[in-house]
């Protein structure tokens, strides 16, 4: 048995020789040469936990090619997302053996990659390595969702039985043990939706409803991101899960709000005080699910409560739009949202003058 881990970064994020991420979700949102939480997590994952091997892949962000066309089209339209998803899928295909645990991580567009990958695996299974020529066909089954290619259809069940690997119980639906993401944005997974060029339907999420085959799911969300085009995409529990009070998602699925804008939560700014908090939270959740880390990424944040600098993401042409405060539904059973204690601490610290409008109930009457 081993752990197989994918770490998918956001748009224009690209590793250097030491797997450093460069830049973040868009050029106006963060500075160059500072690691995102995805890159930091990737570097912190141990190669083994006792006798359990941990194999991992770093999936660089969309739009990281050498040419301007790749950068612009990749960043604006999602061109290249399909390749990223299929590349990571093939990594799992070549490494999976019955009994292995699958861990998927991602930030922003990389969160879209991770979540779509989980949906792809649920729909089409994990192909046997000798059937690698069927990856493109399987992916089209996933993207062209209709009653005939629904995950529970006779066609897809037959496809998985004929061409795909089985888990240790003999099932052709291999469970995703853990998904951890930072701030999945946009109903399409692509925030710059005015550049979609007809791809709206193709890049629509299939997994707003979290599949019951996912055992642990955690998402860190940004309280203070006010760009309407960066609206968050939260999970909802499926009808199957809601009907089963004993399903593990009721205790192992959470979407937690943290102070900061998109890249304060996902990382990429020089001041990592706020992103450290969201990183620590997801690392602790993954550790509780048996993933092994070293301490290097968090050495500068031992107490996990460095307030950090809260950035303003509404810069440049984003100022042309009115601020759009995100809706927070604490206590909602369908989405299981919580507000991190660090947010409350920041509100209580009068020197920070922190008063987010979407959490006004926490400081009303002052």
Short précis:
Helices cover 29% and strands 13% of the residues.
Describe the structure.
With 366 residues, the protein is an alpha/beta fold. The chain has a single domain (2-18, 29-362), classed as Rossmann fold, CATH 3.40.50. The chain has eleven helices and ten strands. The chain has an eight-stranded mixed sheet, with helices on both faces. It is globular, with a radius of gyration of 20 Å. The relative contact order is 0.14. Mean pLDDT is 85; it is low at 20-29. Residues 2-284 form the T6SS Phospholipase effector Tle1-like catalytic domain. This is DUF2235 domain-containing protein. It holds the Pfam family T6SS_Tle1-like_cat. InterPro entries: Tle1-like_cat.
Secondary-structure class: alpha/beta
Quickly name the level 1 CATH class.
Answer: Alpha Beta
Number of helices: 11
Sequence of strands across the biggest β-sheet: 2-3-1-4-5-7-9-10
Provide the helix percentage. Answer: 25-40%
Number of DSSP-assigned strands: 10
Quote the distance from N terminus to C terminus: 55 Å
Any idea of the CATH topology?
A: Rossmann fold
Mean pLDDT: 85
Largest sheet entry: 8 strands, mixed
Order of helices and strands: EHEEHHEHHHEEEEHHEHHEH
Overall geometric form: globular
Q: How much strand content do the residues show?
A: 5-15%
Number of domains: 1
What characteristics describe this protein?
globular, single chain, 13% strand, 11 helices, 366 residues, alpha/beta, Rossmann fold, two-stranded parallel ribbon, eight-stranded mixed beta sheet
Topology:
Elements: E1 2-8, H1 37-44, E2 48-49, E3 52-59, H2 68-77, H3 81-95, E4 101-107, H4 109-124, H5 135-143, H6 154-163, E5 178-182, E6 209-210, E7 217-222, E8 236-237, H7 239-242, H8 249-252, E9 253-258, H9 262-266, H10 273-288, E10 337-339, H11 341-348
Parallel strand pairs: 1-3, 1-4, 4-5, 5-7, 6-8, 7-9, 9-10
Antiparallel strand pairs: 2-3
Helix pairs in contact: 3-4, 4-5
């Amino acid at each position: 048995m081993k752990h197989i881990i994918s770490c998918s970064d956001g748009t224009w994020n690209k590793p250097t020789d030491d797997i450093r991420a460069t830049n973040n979700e868009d050029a106006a949102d963060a500075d160059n040469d500072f690691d995102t939480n995805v890159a930091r997590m990737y570097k912190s994952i141990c190669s083994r936990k006792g006798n359990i091997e941990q194999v991992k892949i770093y999936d660089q962000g969309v739009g990281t090619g050498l040419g301007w066309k790749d950068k612009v089209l990749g960043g604006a339209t999602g061109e290249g997302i399909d390749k990223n998803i299929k590349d990571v899928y093939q990594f799992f295909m070549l490494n999976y053996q019955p009994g292995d645990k699958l861990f998927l991580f991602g930030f922003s567009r990389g969160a879209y990659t991770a979540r779509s990958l989980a949906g792809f695996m649920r729909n089409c299974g994990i192909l046997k390595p000798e059937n690698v020529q069927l990856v493109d066909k399987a992916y089209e089954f996933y993207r062209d969702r209709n009653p005939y290619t629904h995950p529970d259809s006779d066609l897809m069940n037959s496809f998985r039985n004929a061409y795909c690997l089985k888990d240790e119980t003999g099932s052709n639906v291999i469970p995703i043990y853990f998904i951890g993401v930072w701030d999945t944005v946009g109903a399409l997974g692509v925030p710059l939706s005015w550049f979609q060029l007809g791809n709206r339907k193709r890049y629509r999420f299939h997994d707003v409803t979290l599949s019951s085959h996912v055992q642990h799911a955690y998402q860190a969300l940004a309280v203070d991101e006010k760009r309407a085009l960066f609206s968050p995409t939260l999970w909802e529990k499926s009808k199957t899960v809601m009907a089963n009070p004993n399903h593990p998602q009721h205790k192992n699925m959470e979407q937690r709000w943290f102070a900061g804008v998109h890249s304060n939560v996902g990382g990429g700014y020089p001041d990592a005080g706020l992103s450290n908090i969201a990183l620590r939270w997801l690392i602790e959740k993954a550790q509780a699910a048996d993933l092994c880390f070293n301490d290097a990424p968090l050495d500068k944040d031992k107490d996990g409560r460095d307030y950090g600098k809260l950035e303003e993401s509404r810069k440049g042409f984003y100022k042309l739009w009115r601020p759009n405060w995100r809706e927070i539904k604490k206590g909602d059973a369908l989405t299981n949202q919580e507000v991190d204690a660090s947010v409350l601490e920041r509100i209580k610290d009068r020197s920070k003058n922190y008063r987010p409008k979407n959490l006004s109930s926490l400081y009303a009457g002052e």
